[in-house]
Fold this protein.
Amino acid sequence: MFFEVGDKVVYPVHGAGIIEAIENREVLGSNHSYYVLKLCVGEMHVLVPVDKVENVGMRPISNSDKLEEAMGVLRGEASTWEDNWNKRYRLNMDKIKSGDICLLAEVVRNLMLRDVIKGLSTGEKKMLDNARKILVSEVVLVANETVESVTNTLNEIVRERYQVDSRDSAAAST
C-alpha cells in the first residue's frame, strides 16, 4: 500500500497522524524511503519504512461508519476477562497491534471498566493510557474533533456504562 503526503493514517502501536513527508535516508550504508508521520496526540514524529508498511499494520484512518461501530463497542457489554494477568495482557496487546479500531475500543472499554471495578496493575494502567491515546488520536482525525472533546466523550461513555451496571447489580442483590 502506498501513501502520499497529507494522508491520514494509523500506525497501530503509536496512533493516528498525518504523513508530512516521504524522505530517503541512508541507514547502514543503504538508502531507504520513510514516511514521516506526525501523530495528532502529542508532538511525536515517527519514521515508518515505506517497504514495511504492511508488516507494521499502517492503514488509512477509519471511515465514519467504522468509527460508529467502534463507539458501539465502547458502549457495549464488557468482554469476559481472563483472570491470568499475563494472558490478559498478551490478548489485549494483540488486539492493540491488530490495528482494528473496534478491537482497540474493546481493550479501552474493558480496561476502563476493570479500573473502575477492581483497579489495574501498573502494566495495565500503562496499556490503558497507550490504548486510549491511540483510540483518541484516530477519533480526532475521523470526527475532526479536539483531543479534549474526544477524551471527555470516552470518559462519559464508560461512566454511563458503569452506572447502569451498578444499578443492575444493586437491584439484583435486593
Summary: Helices lie at 53-56, 64-75, 85-98, 101-117, 122-143, 147-173. Residues 21 and 36 are 5 Å apart (CA to CA). The chain has six helices and five strands.
